[in-house]
Amino acid sequence: MRDAVVVEAVRSPIGRGRASGSLAPVHPIDLLAHSISAAVERSGVDPALIDDVIAGCVTQSGEQAANIARWATLAAGLPESVPGTTVDRQCGSSQQAVHFAAQGVIAGAYDMVLACGVESMGRVPMGSATLPGDSHGTRINARYPDGLISQGISAELIGARRGLGRAEMDEFALASHQRAAAAARDGLFAPEIAPVKVTGPDGSVVEFSADEGIRPASSTQALAGLRPAFYDEATAARFPEIGWNVTAGNASQISDGSAALLITTSERARELGLRPLARLHSFAVVGDDPFLMLRGVIPATRRVLERSGLSLDDIDLFEVNEAFAAVVLDWRAEIGAPADKVNARGGAIALGHPLGASGARIMTTLVHALHQTGGRFGLQTMCEAGGLANATIIERL
Fold first, then answer.
1. What is the mean pLDDT of residues 309-338?
2. Burial (Cβ within 10 Å: 0-12, 13-18, ≥19) of residue 51
3. Are strands 255-264 and 15-16 parallel, antiparallel or unpaired?
4. Do the Cβ atoms of 53 and 113 come closer than 8 Å?
5. What is the distance between the terminal CA atoms of the chain, rounded to a whole angstrom?
6. Of 116, 177, 281, 383, which one is the catalytic site residue?
7. Which one, of 248, 251, 17, lies nearest residue 125 by Cα?
8. What is the pLDDT of residues 91-137, one digit of tens each?
9. Of 84, 106, 323, 392, which alpha carbon lies 20 to 30 A from 173's?
10. Which domains does the chain carry?
């Protein structure tokens, strides 16, 4: 039976998604091309052997429109014969790209695929590709007559219903920064990062090589001083149970970045002299309540564990995307995973959340972390707008 293995996993450093961010001068096509090129060059494979490039990207408008996977493939210098396609599973887009790539390899439709993702939130603002107003159509409006809510309000409701307070969320956020800072200080991210050379407005070239969202000097006092990010009077009247605890400090950062994983079979890897890093063991994707849309990670985790035949105790490291502290805390309480195994190197609160790149970025970190710690199994899951969630289990090789 064919399998799917990761033979290379690389990412850009994550930049702040604003005009002053280090990656702001880099066009998103070039940013994705950077990770594609790095994956191919580090592996040493002939790029003509790549059957497809599958890229995640959420805001497919402006500079990220018109199938960015194809243009980034060409920008990376790959042969014109290598195709590319762009997928949107919201925040889990590039995790879904990994799923599609692995499933295609296992099925025999592909022999080698690049699964990747990109988001330049500083150049293509979040929300610029969303529906105008409440334009979900008459049938959605009829099915959900009370109206849907934003992700921020969903996080507030999840926190309120779980009984999470502001202090608990802020403590989680601080731990994310502390863990990420320690990992960066100890050089643990270095093997997975391909530095980006950025040309400034004066023509000077600077090498950007470290995630710039990590705040080692953060404190609970500083976090406690931040205002609620989503408060408004109408929503407060509609949901009086909300404690308004979600802030910019205990939610993911707006970021720029890209990541890429080269996926093939064990047999093909042996033929080409490639070293498999991890086997893509099990997959799950679920739909859940689009109102409390961020809780999909809970059934997704349960489903992928059931499909894998593994138990919670078999998993050495968990990666749960830190869209909001409330999401991970709620997941942890429901699933029962040990806190020290969850986002052990920090998450999106500290490292950033470049939407379409995050799934591939997290998997890249997970692959390298398993090798550095000697763990065998890792589980990754991400909440996604609309009540969706992906979950993946990988096995270190």
1. 98
2. middle
3. antiparallel
4. yes
5. 17
6. 383
7. 17
8. 999 999 999 999 999 999 999 999 999 999 999 999 888 755 557 88
9. 392
10. 4-126+252-396 (3.40.47.10)
Determine the Cα–Cα distance for residues 7 and 180; give it in Å rounded to an integer: 25
DSSP secondary structure code for residue 352 in this structure: -
Specify whether 368 is catalytic: no
Place of tokens 């920090």: 346
Do 244 and 231 touch, CB atoms closer than 8 A? yes
Beta-bridge partners for 284: 391
Which pair of structure tokens corresponds to residue 123? 């150049």
DSSP label at 49?
A: G
Query: Which entry of 34, 57, 91, 99 is annotated as an active-site residue?
Result: 91
Contact criterion met (CB below 8 Å) for 35 and 256: no
> Nearest to residue 370, comparing CAs of 283, 302, 303, 281?
281
- Indicate if 99 belongs to the active site: no
Does this model's pTM top 0.70? My answer is: yes
The Cα–Cα gap between 196 and 120 comes to: 14
Q: How far, in Å, CA of 339 to CA of 190, rounded?
A: 24
Three-state SS at 263: strand
Catalytic residue from among 34, 177, 353, 368: 353
Query: How many Å apart are CA 129 and CA 61, to the nearest integer?
Result: 6
CA distance linking residue 251 with residue 176, whole number of Å: 11
116 is catalytic: no
Distance between CA 226 and CA 243 in Å, rounded? 14
User: Strand locations in 154-290, DSSP E?
Assistant: 196-199, 205-208, 255-264, 278-287
